[in-house]
Design goal:
The structure holds two protein chains of two kinds.
Chain A (H helix, E strand, L loop, with lengths): L1 H8 L3 H4 L1 H8 L13 H9 L1 E5 L3 H12 L4 E5 L24 H12 L4 E5 L8 H5 L3 E5 L3 H13 L17 E7 L2 E7 L22 H6 L4 H16 L1 H4 L7 H18 L6 H9 L6 H20 L8 E5 L5 E5 L15 E5 L5 H11 L6 E3 L4 E3 L7 H11 L2 H4 L5 E5 L7 E7 L2
Parallel strand pairs in A: 1-2, 1-4, 2-3, 4-5, 9-13
Antiparallel strand pairs in A: 5-6, 6-7, 7-8, 10-11, 10-12, 12-13
Helix pairs in contact in A: 3-4, 5-14, 10-12, 10-13, 12-13
Chain B lengths: L4 H6 L1 H16 L2 E5 L3 H13 L3 E5 L6 H4 L14 H10 L6 E5 L8 H6 L5 E5 L3 H12 L5 E7 L2 E7 L2 E4 L18 H9 L7 H5 L3 H16 L9 H14 L12 H13 L7 H7 L3 H4 L3 H15 L17 H32 L8 H9 L5 E4 L5 H14 L12 H18 L10 H18 L1 H4 L2 H10 L2 H10 L5 H20 L8 E5 L4 E5 L2
Parallel strand pairs in B: 1-2, 1-4, 2-3, 4-5
Antiparallel strand pairs in B: 5-6, 6-9, 7-8, 9-10
The chains are: A alpha/beta, B alpha/beta.
């Protein structure tokens, strides 16, 4: 193989990788039982194909860390372009790169800097790639800032796992997933063996629900500056259709100025302090604060696990790490358990206990929050119960009517309800249990 | 100079955390880093990205092939060049507004004269230096009040130690403090607003949109009437249960739903225990305000503390109002009125503190060092100020503490499964002694790991013997050694001075964040030793 040749002709190979080789070639009581010290470990590492999802704050760090750990075949997916506000942490980008593809610029940089490393960029959405694309990798390492994207790749990797004749997961089809996430000075890292250990959807409760302002508050009783901005975004903009009816683009400064000015007016009218440009941008783009340091820590934590999975130099993380550096520096490792009813990795039904006289609306609200949904559709095998879609305008009226009915007037004890949403990679089956 | 629009956008994601004032502090900080191996470089990378004013690298080595496999900022073509020079150029590419300089003098050869020049730095970082270098710098820096951050990586291990005489924190960003609501001591405008509200007069809809702070005052009125005591205040759980009941009785059902529940009452119920606390000065703050430095220091922090103390003395023991309210379900009018009167009162209080501070400045001969803004922020975050005190680095004198911690650790050293963090600290110290005595690290030079392991064990034993606490107690000696398993010793030899990039990156990220804490006076730095074990990704902090 051409890669083998490269390793053997690299005159610096032995000195350059001396540190890693100390760990791959020497025995240790801290490695898994199946670890066999020797040069084969490092050779395997250099030939292992890995995929990095996201070339942002975590992604840039991950590419650097993996390349500097000896990985040579790295693919990276990101659909984003570089923005000036990325440059406080995404260190593979320069001011001259603003507007270019993150995946392409990051890949080119690492390829230039680290001799022998081949990073292949994919400037596209993760959904654009097929199962066969994902199947080719030894592992997938995620540096994402969105929960839906995490859930999508998690579901994809779960779907790649075949079963053996006795119903056990076929180990050769498992593509492990290492997932990092940060927000400000907090972060987490975890290792997932699809269908073997807790997956993203087994532990979906770990992610905080998205904060949404109720429409009636922002429309009638605003009290926070955020309420004023959100109102301009969701009510005034679609009504007044400024800029010839263009969609609101938070990256267009003239659009932001328009929202800011109108939000300031509204805030003055209600005597609310605190509307400014930073807050306006924060609300419009749902900005998550980010610093270079936390990204460095969490990416290194993920890359360390990638190194362990590829070489077995030490036992892997078991299996979830929480990190915060506000008061001192603090880490906590917990072993998350699989949910045997997980709709993604166990194909199970999700039991929902509900009082028969509760409103149908309370069920819709509950599942929307629980599964982080945007606009859910609920249906039984017989009919659609709730569906708000331009494709089915005829269902809207009935959907709204159903909201006000009691559960018992819409469903029976033991009914199965199919729940679908853009945020879900595939529909979930709910099993309704009445708790009188 | 105000920050340009471009730098405003560049730093936007971090300014949302530490504010413009934090960014300004970073923008005026100068950091000196001893050693630009992978660890030192990763620390610098984060600081350059964050936008420090300037950095200085002190490193006397040339780029070697092994650097290429460890340090991302070095290219194969750089082999043979001065390491500091190459790293400087590559780092400056990251942020055009940062200034950088180098000294190619090895840190261990710096003269006393060189050491005096380090007083211009905000923070000094020692990256993988010897114990002698760490201690020489700590000694020079401790007395002039400059923090030293000692950072080490070895194999899968890493540690960060902060050595500083005194560190004052303007905002810990702790988010678990109780809100400053003044339920027990309402100011005049607040009492007036409460008086205007009559829960029995208003419609059900209005009741359900009454911010819970007003509900609390009304509940307190009922509570006082019941006890026939005009100043009664719930002091314990049982009293607060009574408040809960009174709040419950306030509820009325609307005609449409028939239910009495509403969001504002739900919020009121949930917040009772945190909100019904007397307005007092917390113990931590009290000890700061009674510190001797309040009456003598010319530093802005201590002058403002003295101003706070004088304010409290003149205002029945109350601090200035913080002026921020938690969000509460409400109609627009009453919530904004509440926030406005809280905000205005806070400004009035803060102005008084400004006057006091200015007078103290003058008296101590340091006119004009304190801005109004810093006093306003100080008053707003008065519950979040903190003072940390540490010691000058002395590896010999911290050793008994390390050994004592190992004795108290729970883990059983006979199994390889778990090694306590303090044990790793001892092992790192033993490795350093091995290096000092043999001129190389264990597990290098082709010497079999098993032989070096024996030599390393000898060093561990001598380190433990040297500690006073165990000298008189032979049992203790055995107890400690039992906890240092042979497999952990062998692991240190396996590492053979390996410097893994991922460990440098992890520890470098943590160390850089500590530098940012130290230069912004925000958040709480590690006090004082952090140890990371890459095997399990567990970590621990100790005060050694």
């Amino acid at each position: 193989m051409p890669n083998d040749e490269k390793v053997s002709v690299d005159p610096l190979a032995s000195e350059r990788w001396r540190s890693i080789r100390r760990l791959t070639d020497r025995e240790s009581a801290f490695a898994p039982e199946w670890f066999q010290p020797g040069p084969a470990n490092f050779e395997f590492l250099q030939k292992a194909k890995v995929l990095v999802i996201g070339a942002g704050g975590l992604g840039c760090e991950l590419l650097k860390d993996l390349a500097m750990s000896g990985f040579r075949l790295i693919d990276v997916i990101d659909m984003d372009t570089i923005d000036l506000s990325n440059l406080n942490r995404q260190f593979l980008f320069r001011e001259a790169d603003v507007g270019k593809s993150k995946a392409e610029v990051a890949a080119a940089f690492v390829n230039r800097r680290v001799q022998g490393c081949k990073v292949t960029p994919h400037n596209c959405r993760i959904e654009d790639k097929s199962p066969d694309f994902y199947r080719q990798f030894f592992m997938v390492i995620c540096g994402l800032d969105s929960i839906p994207a995490r859930r999508w790749i998690n579901a994809m990797l779960c779907s790649l796992v075949d079963e053996t004749a006795d119903g056990q997961p076929d180990m050769s089809t498992i593509v492990p997933m290492i997932d990092g996430g940060t927000e400000g000075f907090k972060g987490s890292a975890r290792v997932i063996y699809p269908k073997m250990s807790a997956c993203v959807d087994c532990t979906i409760d770990l992610y905080p629900p998205q904060v949404n302002f109720p429409l009636c508050t922002i429309a009638h009783t605003p009290r926070l500056p955020e309420h004023c901005i959100e109102y301009i975004k969701v009510v005034v903009w679609p009504e007044e259709k400024p800029f010839d009816g263009a969609d609101l683009d938070a990256d267009d400064p003239t659009h932001v100025d328009w929202v800011l000015q109108r939000a300031e007016q509204r805030a003055n009218q209600y005597n609310i302090r605190g509307v400014d440009r930073r807050l306006t941008l924060g609300v419009l783009k749902r900005i998550i604060p980010a610093v270079a340091t936390t990204n460095a820590v969490i990416a290194a934590s993920c890359a360390l696990e990638a190194l362990k999975l590829a070489t077995n130099i030490s036992k892997p993380l078991d299996n979830y790490l929480n990190f915060t550096q506000v008061q001192g520096a603090y880490t906590c490792v917990v072993s998350l358990e699989r949910d045997k009813n997980c709709f993604t990795c166990s194909g199970g039904h999700v039991p929902i206990e509900i009082h028969p006289t509760a409103t149908f609306e309370s069920l819709v609200t509950r599942v929307t929050e629980k599964f982080h949904l945007k606009n859910p559709t609920l249906e039984t095998a017989l009919r659609k119960l709730y569906c708000i879609s331009l494709l089915f305008p005829q269902l809207e009226e009935e959907s709204h009517r159903n909201l006000h009915l009691s559960i018992k007037d819409v469903l029976h004890d033991g009914d199965e309800v199919l729940l679908s949403d853009v945020a879900l990679p595939r529909a979930i089956t709910l099993r309704i249990r009445f708790n009188d | 100079m105000p920050p340009s629009i471009d730098s405003g956008i560049r730093y936007d994601r971090q300014v949302r955390l530490w504010g413009e004032e934090g960014q300004a502090s970073i923008g005026s900080a100068s950091v000196c880093v001893l050693g630009c191996d992978s660890l030192g470089t990763e620390i610098l990378k984060s600081l350059v990205l964050a936008g420090v004013h300037a950095f200085c690298i002190i490193d006397g080595t040339t780029v070697e092939p092994s650097d290429i496999g460890q340090n991302f900022f070095l290219h194969v073509d750089d082999i043979g060049k001065p390491r500091a020079e190459v790293v400087l150029d590559k780092l400056l590419e990251l942020n055009p507004s940062v200034h950088g300089s180098i000294s190619c003098q090895p840190p261990n050869l710096l003269t006393n004269e060189d050491l005096t020049t380090i007083s211009k730095f905000t923070v000094v970082v020692s990256a993988n230096q010897t114990e002698e270098v760490d201690m020489t710098f700590s000694k020079a820096l401790y007395n002039i009040g400059i923090p030293l951050v000692c950072v080490k990586t070895y194999g899968l291990l890493g540690s960060v130690k902060i050595c500083i005489n005194e560190h004052t924190i303007l905002n810990t960003h702790e988010d678990n403090s109780n809100p400053d609501l003044r339920l027990d001591v309402p100011f005049e405008k607040l009492s007036q607003l409460v008086k205007e509200v009559d829960l029995n007069e208003i419609s059900v809809d209005e009741l359900r949109h009454t911010p819970y702070l007003l509900l609390y005052f009304k509940a307190l009125e009922v509570y006082r009437k019941e006890r026939n005591d005009l100043v009664a205040f719930p002091e314990n759980y049982k009293d607060r249960q009574r408040i809960q009941q009174i709040l419950k009785d306030f509820r009325r059902s609307s005609e449409e739903s028939g239910s009495k529940d509403s969001e504002n009452f739900d919020e009121a119920r949930a917040a009772v225990n945190r909100a019904f606390q007397r307005t007092t000065i917390g113990n931590s703050l009290k000890s700061i305000l009674t510190d001797n430095l309040c009456s003598t220091s010319t530093k802005p922090f201590w002058i403002i503390c003295e101003a706070l103390r004088q304010f409290a003395e003149a205002n029945n023991g109350l601090l200035p109002l913080r002026g921020t309210l938690p969000d509460m379900a409400s109609d627009t009018n009453r919530y904004t009125r509440l926030t406005t009167i809280f905000h205005e009162k806070a400004l009035v209080d803060a102005k008084e503190v400004v006057q006091l501070a200015k007078a103290i400045e003058k008296k101590r001969g340091v006119d004009g060092i304190i801005s109004d803004e810093i006093v306003y922020r100080f008053c707003k975050n008065a519950d979040k100020i903190l003072v940390q005190r540490g010691s000058c680095l002395d590896y010999a004198s911290e050793l008994p503490n390390v050994v004592k911690t190992i004795r108290e650790q729970f883990e059983d050293g006979s199994t390889s499964g778990s090694v306590g963090s303090a044990t790793w600290v001892l092992l790192l110290r033993a490795v350093e002694r091995f290096r000092k005595e043999k001129g190389r690290f264990p597990g290098t030079n082709g010497v079999p790991v098993s032989i070096d392991a024996r030599d390393l064990k000898v060093r561990i034993e001598s380190l433990v013997r040297e500690t006073e606490t165990v000298q008189q107690d032979t049992d203790a000696f055995d107890q400690v050694l039992q906890k240092v398993s042979d497999s952990a010793i062998a692991e240190m030899c396996r590492f053979g001075a390996a410097e893994l990039h991922v460990i440098s990156s992890y520890i470098g990220g943590i160390a850089a964040q500590e530098v940012i804490k130290l230069s912004t006076n925000q958040y709480v730095p590690i006090d004082n030793t952090f140890v990371f074990d890459g095997h399990t990704q567990q970590s621990a902090s100790f005060k050694f």
